[in-house]
Specification:
It contains 27 helices and 12 strands. The chain has a domain of 113 residues. 35% of the residues are buried. By secondary structure, the chain is mainly alpha-helical. The protein is elongated and about 95 Å long. It is 62% helix and 5% strand. A hairpin with a 3-residue loop joins strand 9 and strand 10. The strands form 5 sheets. The protein has a 4-stranded antiparallel β-sheet, with helices on both faces. A two-stranded antiparallel sheet has the order 5-6. Helix 13 runs antiparallel to helix 15 and helix 15 packs antiparallel against helix 16. InterPro entries: Anoct_dimer, Anoctamin, Anoctamin_TM. This is Anoctamin. It is found in: Cell membrane; Membrane.
């Protein structure tokens, strides 16, 4: 039975005898035969070649990477290498076998000599266990069998699922806190003094929100939105933002401890990736010379400039989305439908968010191609180095793709659009959009909610449906040929390998970046969950619910819909840890800026402590934010409108008596310059930002120091091991001295 186990299967079209492709295929298979590989051929609609490596290759691997101290003591010990290691070694040899024409397998696949190459999903006990206990929707709340995952898919995949499980587990805590903050906001839905003042402002006439067909409007019209805004924008938001900064740090520190425990149990804590790679090179070719480390400042400069050009292009796309919202606002306000006219701002933001999601989907594919091209220019020394370089580039591009528009809404929307009588215009015609009348944080909340919901519904549905449909179609197309049995002839028994190889071939192909895509998706989600969480407290809850399904979705894809991944050895999640730490710092900066700039928290606090009745009249029986709305609105004379706006206002239903008030600005009534209050609030915003970020970063550093990266049990385990080894060494030395 063991003889019928095959390490890899190569698939080829049936080429004409004597054709160039057939000759190249034969040369490659001959090279494998010279190395002692056993090759089995099965013909169907395609040619299938089963490949099994000789045992001496694995013995060399065991010998080279065995602990030097144990070599003398275990010369004759024979232990079978794990299946995952067999597959990894065979894959390395296949990829690096060179034909007499100096072509490798990668070149032959580009020339369509071979169509596919993959290890097999074996009908073994581990696989059946994983299918029954892990890759099922009903096990959504069950513990993951990380050890079994490692035995079947290797350490890299096992560490991904260990990390994802740990992230989801701790995300549950953040989700509960975020939900409590949100529910607390709902409970004070009607009790906010600021909201009450907006709802009672039936005589406060506001300036038109656009130039065409926009009437003057009453501040009380935004009563409901003001209450909704207060659900998000309250004192609890500040506490939650600080909590999430601490949570991000504690999560990473606890993951480091978890990872140290896991890889110690696997005896991989001190594993050296470079040594492993050199050993495989020598097993493949004894004459191999290692490629030396090199660095070119010229090449690095070129790549840096190209990265900056790409980032500038992504920011340009964000600007295009801004222009879309400006034009959409103008179009909706001129619509024949009353609903569109009244909700023009919300409609522009909502459709802009959907368009933003579409650009994310498209640019993700573009970003990948650009990042791969830049990695090829860099000429990294090893695959691991190439993967790290690719990770940094693709994450940088994806970050700007996902967050450029959000950064604009959070920090620039409504702050660079001028004021009545002197609006900033696109192409001299369309006014730059303003924040929602109830506050800028509402726009950010809408954008975050739509993008996260779309990413976690449509993207996940497509992530499952596309491979499922592709698998069904391949299965239908690749049915095995039926044999015509002539009367009186004995039916030829079907090769037992044929069905297995064909069923594996019908699965969706995997590539070296299949696992990378899953990591990238989760790290982008982690960024959404932490960076602007002050504007969207439900982000951790949405991420938590998504991840419960994501774990099982990934498991089902790997077990049932995709070919078996080539296992990779690892003792950590690689450069993703540094990326997550960078996101943690960005989260502190982002949330500090949201509270200081986007939120009304600072202006309200400045009013309470400097201008409120509590301060000026020493009144103890009134709410200290009483009068804030009137204080935060500036007066504007209608006759000072631009001629363009005056013509558009003719015939509007709500005619003012010479004055109108503009929400969210601090300007003088005579020359429209900034008031003293504006500079007080500006100074308070700056002071809060500095204080919040320094406090949060200090708490992060304290948390990182307080929670050790490596558990004491792991340290003691290594201490005992070193002590034991030294005592053994001493026993060898002492008798000789005697």
């Amino acid at each position: 039975q063991d003889e019928e186990k095959w390490d890899f299967v190569l698939v080829s079209d049936i080429h004409e005898v004597g054709s160039e492709k057939e000759i190249k295929r034969k040369k490659f298979l001959d090279e494998l035969s010279k190395r002692g590989f056993t090759i089995k051929k099965i013909e169907d609609k395609k040619l299938f070649y089963g490949v099994r490596a000789p045992k001496q290759i694995f013995r060399k691997y065991q010998w080279l990477l065995r602990n030097p101290d144990s070599r003398l003591q275990n010369l004759d010990a024979q232990h079978d290498v794990p299946v995952t290691t067999r597959i990894r070694i065979v894959n390395f040899i296949l990829q690096n076998t060179v034909t007499p024409d100096l072509e490798k397998l990668r070149d032959l696949m580009k020339k369509k000599v071979f169509e596919a190459t993959f290890p097999l999903h074996e009908k073994e006990e581990v696989r059946e266990f994983l299918k029954e206990k892990w890759a099922r929707w009903r096990d959504i709340f069950s513990h993951q069998p990380i050890e079994k995952i490692r035995c079947y898919f290797g350490e890299k995949v096992a560490l991904y699922f260990a990390w994802l499980g740990w992230y989801t587990y701790l995300l549950g805590i953040a989700a509960v806190v975020g939900l409590v903050i949100f529910v607390a906001g709902i409970t004070v839905f009607n009790s906010s003094q600021v909201s009450k003042e907006i709802c009672e402002a039936t005589n406060t006439v506001m300036c038109p929100l656009c130039d065409q067909q926009c009437p003057f409007w009453l501040l009380s019209d935004t009563c409901t939105y003001a209450k909704v805004t207060h659900m998000i924008d309250n004192e609890g938001t500040v506490v939650f933002a600080m909590f999430m900064a601490i949570w991000a740090t504690v999560f990473l520190e606890l993951w480091k401890r978890q990872r140290a425990t896991v890889v110690t149990n696997w005896d991989l804590y001190g594993w050296d990736e470079e040594e492993e790679e050199l050993a495989m090179e020598l097993i493949n070719n004894l004459q191999h010379e290692p490629r030396q480390y090199q660095h070119s400042y010229f090449r690095s400069t070129i790549i840096l400039l190209l990265v900056l050009v790409m980032i500038a292009m992504l920011i340009g796309i964000a600007h295009a989305l801004v222009i879309y919202r400006v034009i959409a606002m103008a179009v909706f306000t001129q619509s024949d439908l009353e609903f569109f006219r009244e909700q023009a701002n919300t409609m522009a933001v909502t459709t802009g968010a959907v368009l933003h999601y579409i650009t994310i989907v498209i640019m993700t594919k573009v970003n990948r191609r650009v990042a791969l091209y830049l990695c090829d220019l860099e000429k990294p020394r090893t695959f691991s180095q190439r993967e790290n370089n690719f990770t940094v580039k693709i994450f940088t591009f994806q970050f700007f793709t996902n967050f450029s528009s959000l950064i604009y809404i959070a920090f620039f929307l409504g702050r660079i659009n001028g004021h009545p009588g002197n609006y900033v215009r696109v192409a001299g015609k369309w006014r730059l959009e303003e924040c929602h009348p109830s506050g800028c944080i509402t726009d950010l909340f809408i954008q975050m909610a739509i993008i996260m919901l779309l990413k976690q519904t449509i993207s996940n549905v497509m992530e499952y449906l596309v491979p499922w449909i592709a698998h069904k179609l391949r299965k239908r197309q690749q049915r095995p040929k039926k044999r015509n049995v002539m009367l009186g002839e004995e039916e030829e028994a079907e090769d037992p390998c044929k069905r297995q190889w064909l069923s594996n071939y019908q699965l969706n192909e995997v590539n070296i970046f299949s696992l990378f895509d899953e990591f990238l998706e989760m790290v982008i989600q982690y960024s959404f969950t932490t960076i602007f969480v002050a504007a969207f407290p439900l982000a951790p809850l949405l991420a938590f619910c998504n991840n419960l399904f994501e774990i099982r979705l990934d498991a089902i894809k790997m077990m049932q819909l995709r070919r078996r991944m080539v296992p990779r050895k690892a003792n950590d999640i690689g450069i993703w840890l540094q990326v997550l730490e960078a996101v943690g710092i960005l989260a502190v900066i982002g949330n500090g800026l949201v509270i200081a700039i986007t939120s009304d928290f600072i202006p309200v606090q400045v009013y309470k402590y400097m201008y409120s009745p509590c301060k000026t009249e020493n009144s103890t029986g009134v709410d200290c934010s009483t009068g804030y709305i009137n204080h935060s609105l500036s007066i504007f004379r209608v006759q000072d409108f631009e001629p363009y706006t005056k013509g558009a206002m003719a015939g509007t239903g709500l005619a003012p008596t010479g004055l109108c008030r503009r929400y969210r600005d601090y300007r003088n009534a005579d020359d429209y310059g900034y008031t003293v209050q504006f500079w007080h609030i500006f100074a308070a915003r700056l002071a809060f930002l500095i204080l919040f970020e320094h406090a949060a970063l200090c708490v992060k550093l304290i948390a990182a120091w307080y929670v050790p990266d490596v558990p004491q049990s792991v340290k003691n385990q290594f201490l005992d091991r070193k002590h034991c080894n030294l005592r053994k060494e001493l026993r060898w030395v002492m008798p000789r001295k005697v």
